[in-house]
Amino acid sequence: MSAVGSQVSAARAAEGTVLRSSLVTGSAEYQANRSAQLALLGQLEEQLELARAGGGPRYAERHRARGRLLARERIELLLDRDAHFLELSALAAWGTEFTVGASLITGIGVVSGVECVLIAHDPTVRGGAMNPYSLRKSLRALEIARRNLLPVINLVESGGADLPTQSELFVPAGKIFHDLTALSALGVPTIALVFGNSTAGGAYVPGMCDYAVLVDRQAKVFLGGPPLVKMATGEDADDEELGGARMHSQISGLADYFATDERDAIRIGRRIVSELNWRKLGPPPSLPADEPVYDPGELLGIAPADIRLPFDPREVLARVVDGSRFGEYKESYGTSLVTGWASVHGYPVGILANARGVLFSEESRKATEFILLANQSDTPLLFLQNTTGYMVGTSYEQGGIIKDGAKMINAVTSSTVPHITLNMAASFGAGNYGMSGRAYDPRLLFAWPGSKLAVMGAAQLAGVMSIVGKAAAQAAGRPFDADADEQRRQLIEAQIEKESHAFFVTARLYDDGLIDPRDTRTVLGIALSAAHSAPVGGRRGFGVFRM
């Protein structure tokens, strides 16, 4: 960030007006919203408990009986005391044949004072074998590390690929090794702490990392185990000869550090990080990180249980940004989109928040100008989504909604300041693109558990299909079967309701995790801190804007 840009950002956020809340927490509407949100959070907690349980008590006890720590215990010992750990993609594989969490734990945490991406196999789930969802989860964690220049620590104990799904794994899994190499080439440190099996293709994880720590009598790092070696060469060999920690430390040279046990490996890992001389390349927080004026607990009752109902995002901002200060930009123009300047945990930000769902031409042009200004001043952007998409209809098409929407999407695409995105309620249609959805590479993207994501609302999509069906029948000169149409309509609506559900969406890693609304400020603060590990700078030149 340039000195001028930093001063402009700080000045804007510091001079923001303190928002006034008109939220009535005693109203029936608020209480209904709160009850619905708490019910969703209860469902979320049930699924998080399943993810935390891994393979369940039986396999956890078997693992402990071997004298080994559980994956989450390893993470806890590795992290600084009382440091944050922002878990990512916790519900990966929810609703599929695989265990919730996809046999992998990923997240951003602080180790020896350095924010790092952690990737830990859970050996209580099918030996830590990787399935298609754990592959997606691992690749997303590496992408977050690359985009934000965060060191990576792999906590390895995996049986390799889940063989029944090898056809979905073999080809794309090579990108794990590609990305580890690319991180190293960028100067981003990569570390492997090997607690158990790291076999076949998995042997390349410690092989590709800058630093490898192997645990004595536990680490098994080889391309082919004893049975495969016997079949391929006729040689009789044991695990230790082929891939034990002592062999790799004394003979092959693969191991950089020999750990006597798991706690020793964790101690060595922390020491390695402390010796990296790692420094954030972005500017530090520059503004007072005072708490919001209003209680963040009240965020539970702001988003309506019925996502078709609008709400004022300023009520959210009043409970998230520093001191509830917000300098609104173009307040009276394009009022379905709220834009302005604030700070979160001392980091200046520009905010775009949907107010009434639909994006008109005015909102699109307003967003475009605002994104340009944020890039001019090197200010990160927060996108708070609650959109049904861009407006349709004859007058809007004739008025140039496509051109104006394209301007906004162009600006989002070309913007180089960090983007952090939160889906508060709805993210439908091209509005998802214009508000920096997954396809537009936000540094991190989260969602509230009541949110929806789809090409459009379930009822609207089912209705469109019904209209298309009627038109097709008329064009073919055959009678329209209203009863069959109604059945199809109900099936389609049920399908879209299921597929737009927040659990379904996060299971497929279309976001980086579902968060409790009350934790929004903390999560955004961690995300901004992580983004500032990399340089923060805006683009000065953009692509062609259609006028």
Main β-sheet: number of strands, strand sense, barrel status? 9 strands, mixed
Compute the separation of the termini in Å: 30 Å
Radius of gyration over all CA atoms, rounded: 25 Å
Count up the helices.
20
Class by SSE composition: alpha/beta
What does this structure look like?
Strands 1, 10, 11, 12, 13, 14, 15, 16 and 17 form a 9-stranded mixed β-sheet that branches. Strands 2, 3, 4, 5, 6, 7, 8 and 9 form an 8-stranded mixed β-sheet that branches. This protein has helices at 3-14, 28-53, 57-65, 71-78, 132-148, 166-185, 204-208, 226-233, 239-243, 245-252, 262-274, 313-317, 361-376, 394-398, 401-414, 431-434, 458-476, 482-500, 502-507, 520-531, and strands spanning 17-18, 85-88, 104-111, 114-121, 152-158, 190-199, 211-215, 220-222, 257-259, 325-329, 337-344, 347-354, 357-359, 381-390, 419-428, 444-447, 452-454. By secondary structure, it is of the alpha/beta class. It is globular, with a radius of gyration of 25 Å.
